[in-house]
Amino acid sequence: MTTISLPESTIKQLHDFFLLIDEDADGLIGHADLQRMFKSINYDIPVEEVRQMIKDAGPDPTANTINFNTLLSVMDERLNQFSGKDDLNSALLYFHGDSEKEIDAVTFSEYLASINQNDPESQKAIKMVFSEFSKAKEITGEVIFNYTKFVNQVGQDE
Length: 158
Fold this sequence. Notes:
InterPro entries: EF-hand-dom_pair, EF_Hand_1_Ca_BS, EF_hand_dom, Myosin_RLC
Organism: Babjeviella inositovora NRRL Y-12698
Protein name: EF-hand domain-containing protein
Helix content: 55-70%
CATH architecture of the largest domain: Orthogonal Bundle
Number of helices: 8
GO molecular function: calcium ion binding
Shape: globular
Number of strands: 5
Keywords: Calcium, Repeat
């Protein structure tokens, strides 16, 4: 059995996430569950890509579903690949300067996209991250990447 190193609060969030996607409450996430979830966030994803996600996630490449324990193991492995919060803040300092706590989302996303321009998977991931962590300022309409929220959500405590 795999030991999970995620904090209890993250496990709870992942469990809530799992229950949200598992609309039929059968304890499994399948293709239809993932398709509904992506559709709900206005993310158009081919059925084949959803099937591949499930195959890649589970220990059995022929499986059509994953359970919570599989999701937890995958997320534990993936989340532990991220840098620490201090490292992320240092890296993002380049884009926001010492005193400014905002990053122009358009410039930042264009920079990241230019690095991975030949990788469609990276492009999709960048779009998903920016749709989750960016918003327009009410007065100016300028789109800002909320790097503090991003660092707090994906960065590891050191």
